[in-house]
Amino acid sequence: MLNKQFLPGVAYFCMEYGLHEELPIYSGGLGILAGDHIKCAGEKNLPLVGIGILWRQGYTTQLIDDNGKPYDVFKDIDLDNLKDIKVTVNVKIGDKDILCKIWLVDKYGNAPLYLLDANLSENGENRYITNRLYCGSEHDRIAQEIILGIGGIRALRALGIEVDVYHFNEGHAVLGAVELIREKMSWGLSFEEAWYKTRNQVVFTTHTPVTAGNGVYSHHALGCTGAYNGLSYEQMSQIGGDPFSITVAGLNLSRKTNAVSKTHSETAKKMWGHIKDASPIIPITNGVHRKTWQDSEIIEAFENGNDLWEPHLKAKKELVNEIYKRNNKNKLNPDSLIIGFARRITSYKRCDLIFKNAELLEPLLEEGKIQLLFSGKAHPQDEEGKSVLPRIIEMSNKYPHSVAFLENYDMKIGKLLTRGCDAWLNNPRRPLEASGTSGMKAAMNGVLNLSILDGWWPEACKHGINGWQIGHGHECCNQDEHDANSLYQVLLREVIPTYYDNKPKWLKMMRNSIAASTWKFSAERMLTEYYYKMYSQEEALKEIAATISNIHNVNYI
Ligand SMILES: *Cc1c(COP(=O)(O)O)cnc(C)c1O
């Protein structure tokens, strides 16, 4: 058992937080994970605080036009859910002093979350730096990272919060460690000593195996924006290379790094194995916050051994009604199979893979034997990602009773879908899915996963028992074709026959799915692992372990 009194104080840094749909300062899985992390810490009363940015216009409200093309609208978010604590800090961006106001979010049962906000009249035209998440030029992105990292450390000092461990969830906050180094050098330490001591205070989580997801900046841009923070070119290159990679910096500035699933840990070791002084990479598989994502009626029926179909059908009907209410177009049938697919729309997630073989699929859609429900947002600047949407909308226009797309994917839609569908489809191009958490939400609600063996799924999948695997973990040049064929095979031979002809087996699989995921892929399990493997001072633990084993080694007989 962890003794709270002796737990290290943790400051958790992340660019985005998904706590609730009414505070839309998140883009996708990274933010949802951060939100679930601090909600679980708050629930367990753990000494952890979150540091983030108040995105005045959030990410994007993404709607679909008459031609099936997505377009972005940027709306000011509602500040009612925030507390003004009347604290400000300064950071330098270029030659300008930027004032950041700190807001507190504590209304979602979460550990305290402090959000930095540069939208103040004092900042002139720089007030827009923190307007939109993941938007802007290289200069803007670095400025945002200065605010999160350097501003975040200064916020902790201004608030008088004692911190033992700084946890950088993804590389966006690594300039925070540069600030820790600067602080120590101002006390008289050499750069090397300050770096060494800082490493001992920092842990790092790496997320994406997609190259473009790992931010890289030119030293010219870093120098201009003031990201050096008093360090020299040589020192900054030692930390992050030239060009400067925030992931390399994260590996070099931390005592330990974790990847977000077992398969991702192997991929990350291969990706970053050449970094000489990198901290060791271990796996800690993601988990989700149960109170947010698990339907209370489903888990109650599960725990009492009651029929699962009744609460499942209730959630499914809610979903079907909500779709029709939202778009007045798609009337799905709650008595037929609904397969859900909702995630960020980006090329490697292959959201249109199931349409690859139209001859095979379309009769099933015509007949209403399978109904496909999609949702997702593409990054506002990702034209390739956006280009798949018209195809899905076209199918939805052709088969409105069996294909639907919900625009502006958010946590509300996420909740509806991961409890109201029958099966949950996931077919990323391997090995690019680091973890994937929507499948965990589905699994906990008895929504059966039908997924490629990537991310978290190899740790959970028992084929035909608690869900299905697509293929056998194939990685090759014709992966799309290969995976599409495997998908049709499982769909036609297993998913459809089980749903229509063997309800008892389906119900048994729902039960197995809930049993296999409720603890194993919960935020509670994840946080316990973070405390044991990342936050605890291992040295101290090893010492205790050595003392104890010495006692055991003494021969008393
Ligand atoms: C859970 C969730 C995600 C992450 O899903 P993945 O399966 O990891 O892609 C993204 N967006 C929202 C709104 C979610 O609820």
Structural class: alpha/beta
Q: Which quaternary structure do these chains form?
A: single chain
Largest sheet: 9 strands, mixed
Which word captures the global form?
globular
The CATH architecture designation of the largest domain is: 3-Layer(aba) Sandwich
Please report the distance between the alpha carbons of the first and last residues: 31 Å
Description:
The protein has about 550 residues and is an alpha/beta fold. The protein has two domains: about 10-285, Rossmann fold, CATH 3.40.50.2000; about 290-515, Rossmann fold, CATH 3.40.50.2000. Helix content is about 40%, strand content about 15%. The chain has helices at about 30-45, 140-160, 175-185, 190-200, 220-225, 235-240, 245-250, 260-270, 290-295, 295-305, 310-325, 360-365, 385, 390-400, 410-420, 440-445, 480-500, 505-515, 525-535, 540-555, and strands at about 10-15, 50-55, 60-65, 70-75, 85-95, 95-105, 115, 165-170, 200-205, 215, 245, 255-260, 280-285, 335-340, 370-375, 405, 425, 450, 465-470. Strand 5 (about 85-95) and strand 6 (about 95-105) form a beta hairpin. Helix 15 (about 410-420) packs across helix 16 (about 440-445). About 50% of the residues are buried. Bound molecules: pyridoxal-5'-phosphate. Pyridoxal-5'-phosphate binds near residues 28, 409, 414, 436 and 437.
